[in-house]
Design a protein that fits this description.
two-stranded antiparallel ribbon; alpha/beta; Rossmann fold; disordered N terminus; six-stranded parallel sheet; 34% helix; 14 strands; 18% strand
């Protein structure tokens, strides 16, 4: 692994090398939480935060030159076109951002650790409780592009794929997470319908960021599931957030997937995270547990 120039002194005057890690999508939801978690690390990693404004990942030549000019020691690839509706409306752009960018980045980083963030919706949701060995069956353009990107990443033995569950929290722009979307809709006075028969394994973004860092720092590679320890329905998630934010009950409506007529969406993408849990220094909480234990933290 390349040693970054410079360093910091340990007690006694010895030099501890500082390893450089690229974080793509640093201005987005998960990327911003990864940056917030850096001060809590004591492992000697220095992040380079790549935002859309600083580096156009879709410009292959520019990306290659940036990598050659100051090659990192590791990469966390969090950049993506993650809004399913935008992917569905523009499959070509989704292919470029989610697949082709990932392919080039994994090839450039072939000799160093790279951690790629994927999604629980690569599964069709017919059974839930998914483990890493379960076959995937994406139902949407977004899920299809993430599945193809996973294959590129896993072709490299030093790389890792983390399938991330539904994640709550705040983003720099205030509109990137599902919980922010709910809060903004309720602020407008909208009544929202939540399915009682659609299930996820939600967790806070701050917890996800901590787990991702531990996985990278530990040097682990391969495929991992990262979600909360509770399987919750959309209705249960909506009730939890409404109670936390003191939303009027009239703004919530319980519904069923039976009445849904939109694009395909999986019924149950809850995941078993035992493989990753065995590598972490802390237990992955369920969203309800975390909310109860952290009443002042934003969601």
């Amino acid at each position: 692994m390349r040693k970054a120039e410079g360093g910091r002194r340990k007690a006694g005057g010895d030099i501890m090398s500082v390893r450089v890690v690229w974080i793509t999508g640093a201005g987005g939801f998960i990327g911003s939480h990864l940056l917030r978690a850096v001060p809590k690390l004591e492992s000697g990693w220095r992040p380079v935060a790549w935002t859309r404004e600083r580096l156009d990942l879709t410009d292959a030549l520019t990306l290659e030159r940036a990598f050659a000019a100051d090659p990192p020691d590791a990469v966390i690839h969090a950049a993506a076109l993650s809004r399913a509706s935008l992917c569905q409306a523009d499959p070509a752009r989704a292919e470029l951002l989610n697949v082709e960018v990932t392919r080039q980045l994994t090839d450039l980083a072939a000799e160093i650790p790279l951690l790629f963030l994927s999604t629980d919706v690569v599964f069709d949701g017919r059974k839930g409780g998914y483990v890493e060995a379960d076959p995937i069956h994406p139902l949407s353009v977004y899920a299809e592009t993430k599945a193809r990107a996973e294959a590129h990443v896993l072709a490299h033995p030093r790389h890792a794929v983390v399938r991330l569950a539904l994640t709550a929290g705040v983003s720099p722009t205030g509109d990137r997470s599902f919980s922010e979307e709910l809060r903004r809709a309720w602020a407008r006075g909208d009544t929202l319908t939540f399915f009682r028969d659609e299930f996820r394994s939600p967790l806070p973004a701050s917890v996800a960021a901590r787990a991702i860092w531990e996985l990278l720092v530990g040097g682990h590679c391969g495929l991992f599931h990262l979600g909360g320890s509770e399987r919750l329905s959309r209705w249960e998630i909506g009730q939890l957030l409404a109670q936390r934010w003191r939303i009027e009950p009239r703004l919530l409506r319980e519904g069923s997937r039976e009445a849904y007529t939109g694009p395909p969406r999986p019924a149950d993408t809850s995941m078993c995270c035992a493989r990753l849990q065995g590598l972490l220094s802390f237990p992955l909480p369920g969203l309800r547990q975390w909310a109860a234990e952290n009443p002042a933290e934003p969601l």
